[in-house]
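User: I'll paste a sequence; please echo it back and then give the predicted structure.

Assistant: Echoing your sequence first, then the prediction.
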Amino acid sequence: MRRTSFRAVTVATAAATLLAAGMTAATAGTAARSDTSEASRYAPGMVAAMERDLGLTTAQAVDRLRTDEALSATQHTLAKTLDARYAGAWVEGDELFVAVTDTAGAAKVRAAGANAVTVGRSLERLDRIATQAYRAAAGSKVAGAYVDVESNTVVVEVAEGSRADVVSAVRQAGVPAGSVSVVEVAQMPRTFINVIGGNAYYIGGGRCSVGFSATGGFVTAGHCGSRGATTTSPSGTFQVSSFPGNDYAYVNTGSDDTLIGAVNNYSGGTVNVAGSTPAAVGATVCRSGSTTGWHCGTIQALNASVTYAEGTVSGLIRTNVCAEPGDSGGSLLAGSQAQGMTSGGSGNCRSGGTTYFQPVNEALSAAGVSLITNGGGSTPTGCSGEESAFSGSLSSGAQAAEPGTSGFSSGSGTITGCLDGPSGTDFDLYLQKVSGGSWVTVAQGITTSPDERVSYSGTSGTYRWVVRAYSGSGSYTGGWSTP
């Protein structure tokens, strides 16, 4: 397989090598200072935690953070443009691999500078297989399930001694042969709430960790408290809570509390939160929790399912970051981007383990609140100044044509449009034109934000807007202007 690196490749000649050798002593101090300067761009304690947990040098940790940030952004864009041909993506070192189901998709991946891997099953199909297999194997013997994008298969984890029974159940359910692997695990997952006192927030006699500040309060794990439950330090009330099924909650705090877009790094400082762009499989992530502080690892799978004693939770981020009781609800970050809140898992921070996280954007969307980012403000939104308007509501994965399926007429010139989606979601905006009797996309806004702006210069014809809820649900408004 041809491997295309996102880094520049340097070819050193003999003369250049000799010159570099002569400069080594003079430049060593500069290189060290450069590493330190680069590390200061990231949160205090994050680089140190990566060095401790992942065995990296300062330079390697900084390089990984910078690389993961760029590759995750590329992955997110490709997932949208490939649509049904997309079969997942993962990061290996400084390279991005994207699985696709046909040669046309592979060409798009290579054009974006990533490595294309042609596979037989799309991610959408794998998700359906995972649901089918999980339901067939449902019961106390099942630990969890997730899509392994690298092998283009589904993995179902079960208790020791139960593999044969689960394999039989999956086969009888008609799950496609060769699409599922059943693996035994030594420990069954558990949630990480704790009844021991600490310095996070309290729910009766229990303790959990704050996830991320949001408009009027904070998001955390749903298993930490049911709707109406009260908290102390800080004081608040669970206004939204979902567990099992999901594992998110929103706690409304008092008006005298100061909401900061940052996370405790347990090294005497904080990590500023800049947004909530989802990271790719293989990306480095760090977790903050009131029991064990900062720990780092990598994302192993997305949209994973796990079974606790209380029930099944789906749509989670699976990682190899450790966690322990009391860390529940705590923050998961990829660089400065919020990823999710600690749900549960197995193992501990002495021997290592597997931990699952509830995606933060789903929690924000369900609560109808915005993430508080560094500087103390929420992500700016707004769509105004256009001649015509539209509005509607969408569930995650759905789309709608605006202003209706018949569209609108426009003369030659520039068409502009904007979309204001619900906070904490990822809504996209497409401009389509009738061509040869079919609707063809001519421009699009597909960032990770709920809000989009599109500008297109074209000929006269019939156009329409398509709003797509890539992730999250809720109401939207938008507008457009014609020449």
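The CA atoms of residues 262 and 475 lie 28 Å apart. The longest strand covers residues 293-308.
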